Every structure is written in C-alpha cells, then in structure tokens.
Amino acid sequence: MSKPFMWCLRYAAPFICIASSCGAPRDELTFNTVTQTLPAPTTTTIAPSERIESLVASNTETTSRIVSDFSQIFELRAQCGRTPKQCPVQQMAIAGSPLFNSLRSIMSERIAGHLYTRTDAGKLRVRIESVEIVDPIHATLHTCIFDSVVLFDSGQIDSTTDDIVFDDSVISASMVWNVQRDHDTWKWVSLMATQRKIGADICGFAN
C-alpha cells in the first residue's frame, strides 16, 4: 500500500487512501456500535483482518443512518481492493466529488497494474468517533484508521503463486470525512487527514 498519500490516493485521496486496505469481502468486516443505553458490545470478528467499529451514540435516526451507510460503504471499499473491476464507485461517493474521482482513478490504476489486496496479509481497523450533522443533507464524521494491508502485484487474481509485494507500509491516521445524502444514502464527498503516522498506530487499537 502506498500509504503516504497514495494511501489517500488509494482510499481517499480519497481516503481512498486507505485504498489500501480494502481488500476484504463484505462479510468479512465486523461492526461495533455503542449506544447511550447499552454498554459497548464485544466485537465478533469473522475474519480478523478487517474491522469497523463506532463510538457514536445512536440517539437519532439520522445519526444511526449516517454511521450505518458509512460503514457499509467502507465495506464496499474493502471489496474493491480485491476486485477493483467490480468496484461500485457510484454507490460509494457523490458523482463528481473529490472522492468519487479519486476512487475511479485508483481503481483504474489498480486494474491496469494488476494490483490487489488479500485478507490474509495485514489489517484494517476503522473507528468512527463522532458525527456532526451540518444540515439535512450534509454531515461530517471523525474517524481513526489503522492500515497495514499489503498491496500485491499479481497477474492472476485467483492465484497467489506469482504475487509480488508492491506496498507493505503501515499507516494510521485521524481523518475527517464529509458526506452527503443522495437518494436516502449518505455517500462520501471528501476527506482530510488531521493527523497521521507511518509505522505506528496512533488510534490505540488493541489488535
């Protein structure tokens, strides 16, 4: 994973920066949501390589929907790492937005370069820390992300015998995401890293 800001380029730059990690299939991401009335649930990890959790109190329907949509889009982003040809960018970001354009560019580069991620190499941890509703169709999410997912150069996506490590850097970052409601789905618009560190976990994930 090129993570300095290929990181963002891979995921975000779309955060796409995280583009990196983004390799796991949809059912391999697990979610944690803490509400005001219940204690923080224990995370059940189906595949330990990817996990998304939320510290946001689900005290309004809008907040709950924003957290849910963001998590599901990150889920899709994870799948894009493994199957960039099938990456549903239009379902993830507002058409014409910075993240939409970045995602399309990144996926095109991944396809052309035969670059893919795998669930057995590296970890992705995402924590949604807060949600700010700006107006009825705009909101901001604050997250902390740890990404050590390895990006491979492989001409055969169904075989790992000829894989070459393209990027195995480790990065963590505090990020602010701007999202917008589009046909009842809160999609990505842009993002900004407020703090990041290469080679370390500034988020404090236990595993």
CATH class: Alpha Beta
Overall pLDDT confidence = 78
- Sheet of most strands: 6 strands, mixed
CATH topology label: Nuclear Transport Factor 2, Chain: A
Low-confidence stretches: 1-46
Order of helices and strands: HEEEEHHHEEEEEEE
* Percentage of residues in strands: 25-35%
The CATH architecture can be given as Roll
H/I helix tally: 4
Provide the domain count. Answer: 1
- Please bin the fraction of helical residues: 10-25%
Distance between the termini: 20 Å
Q: Whole-number radius of gyration?
A: 16 Å
Q: Based on DSSP secondary structure assignment, what is the total number of beta strands? A: 11
Shape: globular
The oligomeric state is single chain
Major β-sheet strand ordering = 3-4-6-7-10-11
Given helix and strand content, the structural type is alpha+beta
Secondary structure topology:
Blueprint (H helix, E strand, L loop, with lengths): L6 H4 E2 L2 E2 L14 E3 L16 E5 L6 H22 L6 H4 L5 H16 L1 E3 L6 E12 L2 E10 L3 E3 L10 E4 L3 E12 L2 E14 L9
Parallel strand pairs: 3-4, 4-6
Antiparallel strand pairs: 1-2, 5-8, 6-7, 7-10, 8-9, 10-11
Structure description:
This protein has 207 residues and is an alpha+beta fold. It has a single domain (7-29, 47-198), classed as Nuclear Transport Factor 2, Chain: A. It contains 4 helices and 11 strands; from the N terminus they run αββββαααβββββββ. Strands 3-4-6-7-10-11 form a 6-stranded mixed beta sheet. It has a 3-stranded antiparallel beta sheet with strand order 5-8-9. The two termini are 20 Å apart.
